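Just curious: can you write a single protein's sequence together with how it folds?
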Amino acid sequence: MLLPIMFRFLPILLFASFTLNAAEIPWVQVDPSGKLVYKSTERGDRIMDFSFAGYMGGGVALPAPAVAKTVNPSGGEDDSAAIQAAIDNVSSMPLVAGFRGAVLLSPGVFTCKATLTIKSAGVVLRGSGSGVDGRGTTLRLAGGPHVCINISGPRAAEPPGPSTPLTDTYVPCGANSFEVADATAFHAGDTILIRRPVTPAWVHFMDMDTLVRDGKKETWIAGETHMQRRIVSIAGRRITVDMPLADSLDPKYLNPPGASIARIQPATRISQVGVESLHIVAPAQSVSIDQPLYKAIQMDGVADGFLRDISIADTTNSVSVGGNSARITVDNLRITHTVATQGAAKPADLSSNSPQTLFNRCTSTGDNLFYFVTGARVTGPIVLLNCTFKGSGHLQPHQRWATGLLVDNCHCPGGGIDFMNRGEMGSGHGWTIGWAVAWNCSAKSFIIQNPPGSVNWAIGCKGTFETSARPFAKEPKLPAGIIESANTPVAPESLYPSGHPHPLNKTKHPGAEVFHAGAI
């Protein structure tokens, strides 16, 4: 179980009284009072506060609801129906303090030929241990390829309400306030969508209007990117939100129509759901990813959910958290592969399309795969913390402009950590990530590239730092990101947690004091 975080650092930006030259000042340091101090770029951008990632927004212990139903292995050909019946039975029970109860699977082997589905709030599927020594609970996948466990809520969302343009000349990454043309229709407590248009000017600035593969033009992204936040306070036309922004907003490339905010009703999701303390094993298959696959866990339409103490063997595209989820913790999840996937297209063991996701103490062992990927247009904070990945694979954000990723004290001794432009790879993945940080990590190799108008950092990291051109090209070499203290770990040891303690269901950082030091 993740323990409650009792002491967290209040973030501030670098105050002007420091006398060091800007180049000598670390991007993050701890001041004498124990606060994290962030250096800003010339335009005010900084490494964002990542403490909001995880269950209940971070800093809250994972729950342990009481057992409501117990299922024993039958020793027969398929236990799926019996487990599903128990899940459905508990799903019909009333909610008490957010939970209906846990379905406990007794020690032994359960054969599963069908997907187990959780679609009601307050339900936890709990095994009797994740060990492979026969004393825990094993879900043995059989029959045709399928997903072992699907946790899925409704995906309904109401259309956005009143909107107003942002009027700042520039809103930096890491900021938690901005000015709008008219704030009269908004109130503290409102949930808003910050809408960042994908304009031809911005796509050209990113050099993403030149993607052509096999003679066919590829589209990087279109439409909008979004950040969802909650209003904490309004002073005149200045709005302060609960979490810092994971991307910058530059009118030079976003007008017209320009960035705007709109009041929304948060998407309908199920909450307080999870899976824990079990072992999932699939038949070993050396196949390509375009064939039917055994998968471990898919989660979408969930707010405040968790996966904990789970071992997984020989699934492909093993664990994914969908984009209609938020505030998810994946803790102590271990994936092993006895055979490698075939083909050039690689599967992803861990995949996040969800903001405020924390992957803690996760491991993966295998070759020819991505250990972790982000999807298109997902915005952080997303955190990988204390994870280890063994084999020749890569930890690599995958496509189409994700932002706000922290890879903290993670290790890929035989593979790579890449924040890069994937160019024409796939269907035109292009710039995969901006405003990402590798902090005190180690890997065989790093590719840390700087997207136009953005920053990617590698700080205190150990390994070989490589430069490269866009895939399928030899030149020019793309600009390197900011590499600080290469091969020498830095303090603080970790950027997560940061911020100060926040109790359950109360606003974080209600009075956070923020100072701006100006240009670096």
The longest strand covers residues 224-235. Residues 1-21, 498-520 have pLDDT under 50 and may be disordered. The radius of gyration is 23 Å.
